[in-house]
Design a protein that fits this description.
By secondary structure, this protein is α+β, with helices and mostly antiparallel strands. The chain is 43% helix and 16% strand. The protein is built from 13 helices and 12 strands. The strands form 2 sheets. Strands 9-8-7-6-12-11-10 form a 7-stranded antiparallel beta sheet, covered by helices on one side. α9 crosses α12. It comes from Xenotaenia resolanae.
Length: 436
């Protein structure tokens, strides 16, 4: 609080960590922290010190509530100081902490810096697959599920079901569990990256992060059901997977889709026809480009383009989605892995995780070798370099061992799909029970 000036410079949240870490681990210390801060704010006539005390109280009320015994005293204190600009905000934060429960980690750097700069509103930029972004207010008590709901409402989506927040930090993109406090998750993630990547030559690795909002689970996705979701998310998330050559498709479909992608880029403008040979990588799956000469591709794309005169950008996106929706691999997350257990399969496998389960695909022919529905998957595990999955029962089931650096993503996706499946089964059961 500035009463005993420090001899050395400290990182922004070094002291807040020391103050709040213990209390988050041991329940009785929560009241102790509240008492100490209130004591420091009582009859404190040093303006700088008092302001720092209020900043600590603001952070504290956003982290955890006091016990029921101490609560009325804290409320009375805040009421007695209602002329202080932070008093009302502290009271609101206290009510939210009582409603949402206690955080798990000390304040994130963003929260500490906000209050030190005298701002009680924190706005966070969120990026979308169509290359747009918007700023949303995030509170200390905001959980990922509320955040997703706020974004869905702002973007006029019909539902937030299947959508998730993702945090991109360093070389990882990790989905935020919907029950987690947003700042807790980011704090936990930055701490984990710090530990796993120690400072080299005194240089601390960059811990800046970006927040993305994307469709994660495609169970109930049907093109045409939600035009905003199709336009902002489904088209732009499916397009790169198609261009990487993960789907099996006919040549006619490829011509048709290339014409639609061109239309999304340029609508009815034909002046870019001459550039088609240069932009084939943006129109055609990468492994098919060499099957024809660039002039043949150009002729075919133009011929299919002319079949749909006057179609708008949004109509073209929907037509694109409706074609790939017919494929069993629509809405998949794809993972290229090296497998070491199944001699009948290629060593390099493409694994697709989607609403049907886990499909094993031959990366050369794009043939689906087998699909394991979620009901048949009994166990799975992952680490930095592997992903293991057991099909059938644990005693007589078959195991697939894969080498991959994306095991964490496969693990999370499988967990989320199976959790969603179980939730839906329980809803159906309770629905049947109520109707009897």
């Amino acid at each position: 609080m500035g009463d005993y000036p420090s001899k050395r410079t400290r990182s922004v949240n070094e002291l807040t960590d020391q103050i709040f870490e213990g209390a988050l681990k041991a329940e009785p210390l929560k009241d102790e922290i509240y008492c100490q801060i209130i004591k420091q704010l009582t009859d404190n006539h040093v303006k700088y010190s008092e302001e720092k005390g209020w900043e600590l109280l603001w952070l504290c009320t956003g982290l955890f509530p006091p016990s029921n015994v101490l609560l009325p005293h804290i409320q009375r204190f805040l009421q007695s100081k209602k002329l202080h600009p932070l008093s009302g905000d502290c009271m609101q934060r206290l009510h939210k902490a009582l409603r949402n429960g206690s955080r798990k980690y000390p304040p994130h750097l963003v929260e500490v810096e906000a209050i030190q700069h005298k701002t009680t509103q924190i706005f966070h930029k969120v990026y979308f697959p169509d290359d747009t972004d918007e700023a949303f207010e995030v509170e200390s008590s905001t959980k990922a599920k509320d955040f997703c709901q706020n974004i869905s409402t702002r973007l006029l989506l019909k539902s937030s079901e299947g959508f998730s927040l993702f945090v991109k930090i360093s070389d990882k993109v990790i989905s935020v569990p919907e029950g987690d406090f947003f700042f807790d998750f980011v704090r936990h993630l930055t701490d984990w990256i710090k530990k796993s990547r120690p400072a080299k030559d005194g240089i601390i690795p960059s811990l800046t992060y970006q927040v993305f909002f994307m469709k994660k689970l495609w169970t109930s996705t049907v093109p045409g059901k939600d035009s905003f979701a199709d336009s902002i998310f489904h088209y732009y998330q499916e397009l790169p997977k198609y261009l990487r050559g993960y789907h099996k498709c006919s040549r006619e479909e490829v011509f048709h889709l290339a014409a639609l992608i061109y239309r999304v880029k340029f609508e009815d403008d034909k002046s870019h026809f001459s550039s088609i040979p240069k932009m084939l990588r943006e129109l055609v799956p990468q492994d098919l480009i060499r099957q024809m000469s660039t002039d043949d591709w150009k002729r075919s794309v133009i011929a299919y383009f002319n079949k749909h005169p006057g179609k708008s950008r949004e109509e073209a996106k929907l037509m694109f989605l409706k074609i790939i929706y017919k494929w069993a691999t629509f809405g998949s997350a794809f993972f290229e892995v090296k497998q070491t257990t199944e001699p009948n399969y290629p060593e390099i496998l493409l694994i697709a995780i989607n609403k049907h389960g886990v499909s094993l695909i031959d990366p050369k022919t794009k043939d689906i070798l087998t699909t394991h529905p979620f009901t048949k998957i009994s166990n799975w595990s992952s680490g930095n370099t592997y992903f293991h999955i057991t099909i059938g029962n644990l005693v007589r089931g078959s195991k697939l061992l894969c080498e991959t650096s994306l095991g964490y993503k496969m693990d999370d996706l499988l967990t989320s799909y199976i959790s969603q499946m179980l939730t839906n089964m329980n809803k159906q059961r309770s629905g049947r029970g109520n109707s009897k």
